[in-house]
Amino acid sequence: MTPLLEVDNLHRDYLLRRAPWQRAETVQALAGVSFELRAAHTLGVVGESGCGKSTLARLLALIEAPSAGRVRLDGEVVALDDARALRRARPRVQMVFQNPYASLNPRQRVGDALAEPLRLRGRGSAAERRDAACAMLQRVGLDAAHAMRFPHMFSGGQRQRIAIARALMLHPALVVADEPASALDVSVRAQVLNLLQELGDAFGVAYVFISHDLDVVRHIADDLLVMYLGRCVESGAARQVLDAPLHPYTRALVAATPRLHRSTARVVLAGEPPSPLHPPSACAFHPRCPHAQARCRAERPVLRLQGEQWVACHRADEIARGVLG
Ligand code: SF4
User: How far is CA 36 from the centre of its chain?
Assistant: First the structure.
């Protein structure tokens, strides 16, 4: 069966000029990311800030074009310069942002905001679109009467519910959620995450769920992709990766998450990630890795299957055997 989403060797470079008189430098925000996502499944993407996960989100949501590589949706290549493919793909892919207030027009009533995606595609009459908006508001736990209000009249959690409702109005196959609950109070966070999960099951939606919170990802994701400086360093079934991480970076992230910490993960993550402007040679994690050897500074590790996980580490086999502790 064709996966819903196939991401093949995705690259994204940005040109950065620190001052007008200086030469532009290239920042590799994504340096070759590949994965597949099945329909109605959730892929968690984790890593420290600057690892490229938000860039990946924008590329998957068809907001930006990759510098190289391909995205296929239902087997069809989607490129921003292919208007016909884009017209077919756009309603199938929606995005939920971290800050719901920024993604809603403050001068637009919530009901109009929800009906707008339908109106732009000529779906239904005005009355049908209004009914659909009210029904979706109720589906996300709000009141149909809220359709007449403006975004500033809601709490942060309610606004995120509205943003989720808007993303689902076209019944997309894929929702890219970039830290959708991290700006919310802890008490509201769980409600919004449960809502996303419940709606995903009800509508058969697949999620790419970007987060820095491994605990949340363990709760919500089927599969997991761990990123470091624009590359995937480990991937596999979310519970498998988080219960028995094999890459020293994943082990350090798990060790820093008290509720996930197992005795297998003793690596402490020291210092900040290096600048993507000047990434370390070979294994980019070597300056922070307690297991780094000469080979790690000379040769970039590629993703290899280690048991049931894909790991980019020269010493994954030793870690799997418990030799490195
Ligand atoms: Fe550490 Fe070497 Fe593995 Fe990189 S390749 S994560 S430096 S052991």
Answer: 13
Cα separations in angstroms, 219 against 35, 213, 215 = 21, 10, 6
Long-range contacts, stretch 113-117, CB < 8 angstroms, 24+ apart: 113/151, 113/162, 113/166, 114/147, 114/162, 114/165, 114/166, 114/169, 115/169, 116/166, 117/91, 117/166, 117/169, 117/170
CB 287 within 8 A of CB 296: no
CA of 315 to the centre of ligand 1 (A): 6
Q: Which atom of ligand 1 is nearest to the CA of 291?
A: 8
**Amino acid type, 244:** A
Query: What tokens appear for 286 in the block?
Result: 């070597």
- Alpha carbon nearest to ligand 1 atom 3, residue: 313
Which residues of the chain register pLDDT less than 70?
Answer: 259-268, 270, 325
* Rounded distance from Cα 235 to ligand 1 centre (Å): 16
Q: How far apart are the first and last CA of the chain?
A: 40
Q: C-alpha angle 67/73/74, rounded to 5°?
A: 155
Tokens 């019944």 belong to 171
- In sequence order, what DSSP letters do the residues of 65-128 get, joined into one string? --SEEEEEETTEE--TT-HHHHHHHGGGEEEE-S-HHHHS-TTS-HHHHHHHHHHHTT-S-HHH
* pLDDT of the residue at 268: 66
Q: How far is CA 53 from CA 46, 263, 274, in A?
A: 7, 28, 16
Contact call for residues 200 and 121 (beta carbons, < 8 A):
no
Q: Cα(318) to centroid of ligand 1, in Å?
A: 11
The Cα 184–Cα 165 span in angstroms is: 17
- Reported as a single tens digit per residue, the pLDDT across 77-86 is 998 888 888 8
